[in-house]
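Morning. Coffee machine broken again, so started the prediction first thing and wrote up yesterday's gels while waiting. Chain of 351 residues, entered below exactly as on the submission form.
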Amino acid sequence: MNFASDNTAPASPEILAALAAANQGAMPSYGADPITARVRARLNELFGTELLAHPVGTGTAANALALATLVHPYGAVICAEEAHIATDECGAPEFFMGGAKLISLPNDDGKLLPGQIDAVMARARDGGVHHVLPEAVSITQATEWGTVYTPDEIAAIGAACRAHGLRLHMDGARFANAMVHLGCTPAALSWQAGVDVLSFGATKNGALAAEAVLFFDPAMAEGFERRRKRGGHLWSKLRYVSAQFDAYLVDDLWLRNAGHANRLAARLADGLGALGTVRMVQTVQANELFVAMPASLITALHDAGAHFYEWIAVPGIDLPVVRLVTAHSTTADEVDKFLSVAAAASRRLAA
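Came back before lunch.
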């Protein structure tokens, strides 16, 4: 019953098989190999546009290097208060940006609103040279609260960005989960809605270690390759990152994995919602659940061998909040066992 994170899941067998196949013989280094070329062509086809794709090994590298390419050291990036770049990357974006600031804004569901961007830009301009001037906005899909931006919501943020001369970056660590939930195309959820740069994640969805920075306007990528090299994120044997994407995108493995994780998250949410002793903090839209539950129920689940994280306190909720994450490898039996333990503990609470 491991619901700690989709990072704890094993790699998909198809990914491991692709790595073994890529391990046959010699190939050109630093991304000049045919596998990387094939993946770039496949991403162009998948997103329906001429883009520039740069594979990297981690999501933090993808986000930090992408933002560093978009923002000057005296600039800033607007993001949600709970964004991964603000809470879970140990200052890497600021480090790679050379000192540019993150301006993180409060929210109830992990989503930025266009009006927040307008307000920040008005204050920044009023402050003149004494204040940093934001140059980019970063949104997370799905958000750190497990919620999903719709194409219309992204388009509204994109319009605000264009009005203020800002570039729009998307941290797509769970992009596949969001896309499956919405049933839309990759293009509709990215460049067609105004996204300029996407950190396209695969690691949380079945890959071993594979992310890609996608520039929908190749002109915006100027300097990225040298930043990646200087930052130590250009793999000499880049074929091993690309091979993961090669398998990830074939026969819709990425969508099948995400769909499985989302379905089991919904199954878990439905079962917990029927207990009467817990409360969903956010609507379950992808593969993360945030649940307020009594401390005794948390203890009973941990004692039964369940793994999950206790989350931050949420204003207005007087119970502890936990995060549960399903993955491509989560089984229905795990979910049902978790629900059985939770139901038994809930009955004891009610007795």
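The two ends are 26 Å apart (CA to CA). Going to sketch it on the whiteboard this afternoon.
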